[in-house]
Amino acid sequence: EARQAAEKADLLVFVSFSMPEASLKRIAHETAKAGGVMVIRGFKDDSLKATVKAAEELAALQGDMLIHPELFDHYGITEVPVTVIARNGEDGLDGCAVNSELGMCTEHAAVKGDVSLHAALEHLIRESKDKKLSDIANAKLAVLEGRK
Questions:
Q1: Does the predicted model carry a pTM greater than 0.85?
Q2: How confident is the model over 87-120, as pLDDT tens digits?
Q3: Sheet strand arrangement including 11-14
C-alpha cells in the first residue's frame, strides 16, 4: 500500500514527529488541501502506539501520512521538512522513469525548509528546470488556492 501511495503521489512533504506541533498541523492541513502526502521515516519514539496517536491527531486534519524510510533514501532527504514534487507518469507524462524495483519516480524537484506549502510550490514553479514538474507544482498550487 505504501508503495502504491508513493507511486501515485506527486506531492510529498517529508516531516518528523520531532518537528514543532504547530508546523506539523499546518503542513498536514496544507498538504491534504493540495492532495499531497506527508512522509515520515519511522515510528515516533520507536513506539507504534505513540506513532498511531500522533498520526491520528494529524489525520483529524485530513492529512495522509506514509511511514516510508525508503522514500527518504530515494529522494536524498536528510533533514525535514522538505517538499517534493515528483513525476508519476499516471497521466501519460513521458520521460518519467519509475524504478520498478522501488516503485518510486526518478524525476523530482525539492524545497527545503519550514515554509508554507504555497511558498514552496511557488518556488518550485519558478525554479524547476523540468517544465512538467513545474506544471505539477502549478496544478497543486491551484488546488491549494481553491482555483481548481
A1: no
A2: 755 543 433 344 444 456 767 899 999 999 999 9
A3: 65-67, 37-40, 11-14, 82-86, 108-112
Kind of pairing between the strands at 11-14 and 108-112: unpaired
* Inter-residue contact 98 to 106 (CB < 8 Å): yes
Distances (CA, A) of 139 to 47, 85, 132, 143: 37, 11, 10, 6
The secondary structure element, H or E, covering residue 11 is strand 11-14
**Segment (H or E) for 39:** strand 37-40
What is the length of the chain? 148
Helix (H, G, I), strand (E, B) or coil at 52: helix
Which residue's C-alpha cell is 506527508?
Answer: 38
Q: Is 39 exposed, middle or buried (0-12, 13-18, 19+ CB in 10 A)?
A: buried
- Asked whether 97 and 107 are in contact (CB, 8 A), the reply is yes
Contacts of 70 (CB under 8 A, 6+ apart): 102, 104
SS3 3: helix
Residue with cell 513506539: 47
